[in-house]
Amino acid sequence: QVQLVESEGGLVQPGGSLSLSCAASGNILSIDEMGWYRQAPGTNRELVASIKSGGLTNYADSVKGRFTISRDNAKTTVYLQMNSLKLEDTGVYYCTAVPGFWGQGTQVTVSS
Question: 45: exposed, middle or buried (C-beta count within 10 Å: 0-12, 13-18, 19+)?
């Protein structure tokens, strides 16, 4: 089993920045890929960004150039740096670890 604990999200104005982190514990050797998904009210959960153990990253088109995903050397913590935030970035952000583990989610609200 793997446990994922996300940092608190928050309220930020459009154009602002926010950083999220997610710490993994438990059977971390089983983790290959980690990432972030988000879900806005009334929508499906969507991939925001992911990073493989070798460092290969993948981003949703909507966040490319604005968000950066990274992982610490021990590969137990994944970070999401979010810059130039937009209203449509609002949602609950979930950390995920492959295979099949999810964090509890953290709310990010972009609003003026």
Answer: middle
